[in-house]
Design brief:
The complex is a heterodimer of chains A (about 140) and B (about 270).
Chain A (H helix, E strand, L loop, with lengths): L1 H7 L9 H8 L5 E2 L11 E2 L1 H16 L4 H4 L1 H4 L2 H8 L3 H19 L10 H20 L1
Chain B lengths: L12 E10 L18 E5 L2 E9 L5 H6 L2 H21 L3 E2 L4 E3 L2 H10 L1 H11 L2 E10 L1 H10 L8 H34 L4 E4 L12 E11 L3 H15 L4 E9 L8 E2 L7
Antiparallel strand pairs in B: 1-3, 1-4, 1-5, 2-3, 6-8, 6-9, 7-8
The chains are: A mainly alpha (about 140), B alpha+beta (about 270).
Amino acid sequence: MEEYRAISRMSEPRGQGLVDVLERVLDKGVVIAGDIRISLVNVELLTIKIRLLIASVDKAAEMGIDWWTRDGELSGKAGAQGRKQVQPKPIRDRLTQLEQKLETVLNRLPDKSGTPSRASKRRTTAGSRNQARRRKNG
Amino acid sequence: MASRQPSQPRPGTVWYVYGVLPASASLELHNLVPMGTSPMVCLRSGRLQALVDAVSREEFNDAAIQRRDLRWIAEKAQHHNEIARLAAAKATFVPFRFCTVLKDEASVLKLLALNEGAFFAAFAKLEGKSEWGVRITRTANKRDAVKAKAHKQEDESGKAYLLRKQRELRDNEQIEQSMRSYAEACHRELEQLACAANRLPGNRYGPVNDGQSIFSAAYLIADSEAQAFKQRVGKLAEENSPLGIKLHLTGPWPAYSFTDLKLSFTGVST
């Protein structure tokens, strides 16, 4: 039964990965207007809830716990490659922020390499003060 | 004919609707694996039939869905797609959104009866055509090339490090921009072979297999043109590969992206 095998193969790598499937089954296709929720026909619309759930899952992805997109079983060949490459976004963002801050700090320093920087000047001053103190004590 | 007369489903079940097709079409229902425990059925009303699955109300209700984990969603989404794909391969099929569950058989039949016109308009648009997807990713190699170009020196000062980072960022942005323009050019070319084209969000549901996704779209292609479309995608993939983008062809899909129907039960009096 070819179709049956197709189902059992569902989780194996194919042209269409999980992301492609979700993009379509969650966002596209025929919908039934939300007002039937309160109509007498009494239909249960799960789609909206599903989308809410996915929205909170998006946050999980930002935090780097998007296991399902990297799970080879679920999203085809994503597994092997994805796991190596993923760098959690918050860490990347934080790194960029830190780099920017560092640059503004460094830009305030004197430009010529010959001139000692403020930091090293401070160190020298502190050093000579210590020397002076040592001389006094000795 | 693979449909049946209205009857009472087992207690505690609701109808999961995969999609709608003309009553004249026939599916090999015994080949479709249901989500529930009963065989898949087609419910008919007039010139229409709905492909449905009696699923457990325990499993498919708002509260239960709230507690589901992503593995459940991923499995059911793939399952939904697989059924829709097999149906679309046999008939003009209007796919429904994931987890559309109706209370009982009467609701399904009412939905069909009240929206027959809309369904037939959709059939007319989709007949003899299929949805194909093209996703374009930026290949990792190009990014690595940028990094390698501005190669790190052994004992670079803090400032040199930051300047290098800034340079990398700027190069990266420029590359990103040109990649997007290559993708747009591909889209314009593919669009000309399509009866309709729709862009997709591309990265709403997380990263994709192969590099960073910069473009995703769906194309409605006449089945007689499918071969030409595939060849064109192949040709574009070849041409653009040295430029650092990769084209991924998916499909044929059920025509999810070309059935933006919003149905209603308005007017129903019970």
